[in-house]
Design a protein that fits this description.
The protein has a single domain, classed as DHBP synthase. The chain starts with a helix and ends in a 6-residue tail after the last strand. The protein contains six helices and nine strands; from the N terminus they run αββαβαβαβαβαβββ. It is of the alpha/beta class and 188 residues long. Helix 1 packs across helix 5. The model has no long low-confidence stretch (mean pLDDT 93). A hairpin with a 2-residue loop joins strand 8 and strand 9.
Length: 188
């Protein structure tokens, strides 16, 4: 692990919020299990407080951290598309995660394809990761664009150049059928 990664992990673990390249776009990230950091992320992003965000995990068993139990059909779907650019909405009824699911009793998760990102997540814990833009603005494709949006309101920026990726495909599995909520990079 590089020195930069160690510093980044420390910032995130201590409640930091910042810009990190994901396997799709730049994300505005913080630890999903840090309620204070989550509230700060919502404020910085000017996100609708009733709208949950996607959570990046490092391995399938991370779902247990949120009290999420997957059904057989969901597990088969996840094994087919993860790791990858597909985010899946799963049931999360635990009241203690109200600050994440915002009353919807569901959370969207993604197991990123990028191994270096999964390594970081394995050290920080799952990351809340909406795209790096204020609500209703275009996602930042460069750090320069992200800095225009967020300036010094965030604790770090990780620059890997311009990202031309699409957002993840967002799906929900209901009554055994896959429903595409947002068509992204992966066709389902």
């Amino acid at each position: 692990m590089k020195n930069n990664d160690k510093k980044l992990i420390q910032i995130i673990k201590s409640g930091g919020v910042g810009i990190l390249p994901t396997d799709t776009l730049y994300g505005l990230v913080c630890r999903a299990q840090d309620k204070k950091a989550v509230e700060r992320l919502y404020k910085v992003r000017k996100r609708n407080p009733e709208k949950p965000c996607i959570i990046l995990i490092s391995k399938l068993t991370d779902l247990k951290l949120f009290g999420v139990e997957i059904k057989k059909i969901e597990k088969e779907f996840l094994q087919k598309y993860w790791p990858g650019e597909v985010s899946v909405v799963l049931e999360c009824k635990a009241k203690k995660f109200q600050y994440l699911h915002r009353g919807t009793k569901t959370l969207a998760f993604r197991l990123p394809k990028k191994e270096s990102l999964r390594k970081i997540i394995s050290k920080t814990g799952p990351l809340l990761a909406p795209s790096a833009n204020p609500e209703s603005e275009k996602p930042a494709l460069t750090i320069k664009e992200a800095k225009k949006y967020f300036g010094d309101e965030v604790d770090f920026y990780v620059n890997v150049g311009k990202l031309n990726a699409k957002a993840s495909t967002l799906v929900k599995i209901k009554d055994g059928k896959v429903e595409v909520l947002r068509q992204g990079k992966v066709l389902i």
